[in-house]
Specification:
Low-confidence stretches: none
Helix content: 25-40%
Shape: globular
Order of helices and strands: EEEHHEHEEHEEHEEHHH
Bound molecules: zinc ion
Mean pLDDT: 95
Radius of gyration: 19 Å
Largest sheet: 6 strands, mixed
Oligomer: single chain
Length: about 260
């Protein structure tokens, strides 16, 4: 089996019951550490609920991501430009980013927009965005390269989250991120595999924790350091103070749709 990221040899790593009934092979690349399943024939069943019911971290994660990316976009990108949240789920992150003051739009072919109604991105998607964000979606990709190409067709900068495992250490089957129970996590990355992916598309790769950036831009190390160290609190408070939140502006805009 060839690695879906670097094309080197990937060996059978283990197999495990997915959705409590399908015995699924997991492969691991010896060159970049990427782990992926055999052809995922069980996905129709896995996606009966678009957002898996055991994702208890959804709200907390969105709050964290909104703070960190607000700092990133404020410091290193055009804060007045348009942004897109791809595979944006219920629209929680899009709403939060608009509340902070970024002109964010939502897109998700598989989920209902509950919180960012009125701010769905115009389709077909155009390359007008400063950055496209996509959180907790890379691990769902059957073909990571094809999906990344779609994202890069919308923006030169892709900001995403996915939990990484360590290339140098064996990965325990018990790692919660495998999520055998819902069967949706079929691509599991290392820092090395993301680095290879960025290089293939001629992008710079930045990472802090489980948040990653592929971009054509150079982000100075000092800015990255500031975001990492203070993005959750002091720097975020500063950015929020400097930005003009869109909560009320959007409220009046949405009111124009009432009683039509
Ligand atoms: Zn590989």
């Amino acid at each position: 089996m060839n690695c879906k990221i670097c094309s080197n040899n990937a060996k059978l790593y283990f197999n495990e019951l997915v959705l409590n009934k399908y015995k699924v092979d997991y492969f691991r690349c010896g060159h970049c550490g990427f782990i992926f399943t055999e052809e995922p024939y069980w996905l129709d069943e896995a996606y009966k609920l678009p957002i898996n019911i055991s994702d208890t971290g959804l709200l907390f994660r969105n709050m964290y991501l909104a703070k960190m990316t607000a700092c990133l976009f404020y410091l290193s990108f055009n804060k007045d430009g348009k942004y897109l949240d791809y595979a944006g789920g219920y629209g929680v992150y899009t709403r939060l980013m608009r509340d902070i003051g970024f002109d964010f739009y939502w897109n998700d072919p598989f989920c209902k927009n509950l919180f960012a109604t009125g701010f769905a991105a115009a389709e077909p998607l155009q390359k007008i965005y400063q950055a496209v964000t996509t959180f907790e979606s890379f691990e769902h990709f059957v073909s990571p390269k094809e999906e990344l190409e779609k994202l890069l067709a919308v923006s030169d900068t892709v900001v995403f989250s996915t939990n990484l495992h360590n290339f140098l250490q064996p990965v325990e089957k018990e790692w919660w991120y495998f999520s055998f129970g819902h069967g949706q996590h079929i691509s599991l990355y290392t820092k090395e595999s993301l680095s290879v992916l960025a290089e293939q598309y001629n992008k710079r790769f930045y990472t802090f924790g489980d948040l990653h950036i592929f971009t054509g831009k150079e982000i100075p190390a000092l800015k990255m350091y500031l975001i990492k160290r203070t993005g959750k609190h002091i720097l975020y408070e500063y950015v929020r103070h400097k930005m003009q939140g869109k909560t009320m502006e959007d409220h009046y805009y949405m009111k124009t749709f009432e009683n039509r």
